[in-house]
Amino acid sequence: MANSNSKDALDLYAEVEDLLGIKEYAPKLYGSFFDILDSLTFNSLLDIGCGSGEFLSSVTNRYLLDNIYGIDRSSKMAKIASSRGLTVSNKELSEIDIKFDIATATFDMVNYLTPDEFIDFFEDLKLVIKDGGYFLFDVNSEFGLSEVAVGNFIAEDSSRFLTIESFYENGLYDSKFTLFKRDDRRYEKFSSYISQYYYSEDFFNLLSEWKLIKKLPINLYNMGSNDKVIYLLKYIGS
Ligand SMILES: C[S@@+](CC[C@H](N)C(=O)[O-])C[C@H]1O[C@@H](n2cnc3c(N)ncnc32)[C@H](O)[C@@H]1O
Asked: Domain 7-141+199-235 - what CATH class?
C-alpha cells in the first residue's frame, strides 16, 4: 500500500513553495479555472488543498458568494492563508459538515492522493457537495509528471538552501526535498518525501455518482505538450 504524504512533508513544502517559481504560472492556470467557473451558477465554494490561498483570494475578489471556505492538510499552509484574511482551516475533508455548490482543487492537489485515499476522497466529497453540484480540479498529465516535473532542482535565498530530486516510474512521482535553513550562523537540515500519483481520465469516468462534464488539457509550462488537465465533474447524487 502506498504511503500518504505526511503532514510534516506538506509543512516542509509550505516552507519552500515560494522558492519553486510556480507562482508565476498561477494566473494562467487559475484563468482556465475561471473560464469554466464563469459558466456555472454557484453560491458557495470549498477549495480543497487551498495552500497559501492564492486561488481562494482570487475567487473572493471575483465572485460575490454566500460562503467561501478553504481547507489544507498542512497547518502551515492553513496559517499562511488565514493570515491573508481568508476563511481557512486545517481540517480534513471528512470533518467538513456543511454542503457546498462547488468544490475546487488547484495545482495538483488530487495527484497528492494515494490510490487508497483517492477512493475515500471521492466518497467524502459526496457528503460536502449538494446534489447537482460540481468538483473542478486539475491533475498533472503523465507528460507533466514524467517529463516536466522530474530531475534535480536547486534554489536558495538569504536563509534557505533547497534541493529537490524527483523521479517518475509507473504512475508514481517521488520527490525528495532537502532544506538547509539558517538559524543564526548554523544551518539546520530538514528532509521529506512528497509523492504524486498519475490519474488518467479513466479513473474519473469510473467514479460512481460523478459524471465527467468537461476535460480541458493545459500546456502551463510551454514544454512542448500538455502538462496538466482540468476536469469538471458533476455530482449526480445517489
Ligand atoms: C501544490 S499545492 C497547491 C496549493 C493551492 N491549491 C494553489 O493553487 O497554490 C497542494 C496543496 O494540497 C495540500 N494537500 C495535499 N493533500 C491534501 C489533502 N488530502 N487534503 C487537503 N490538502 C491537501 C498540500 O498541503 C498543499 O498545500
From this structure: alpha beta
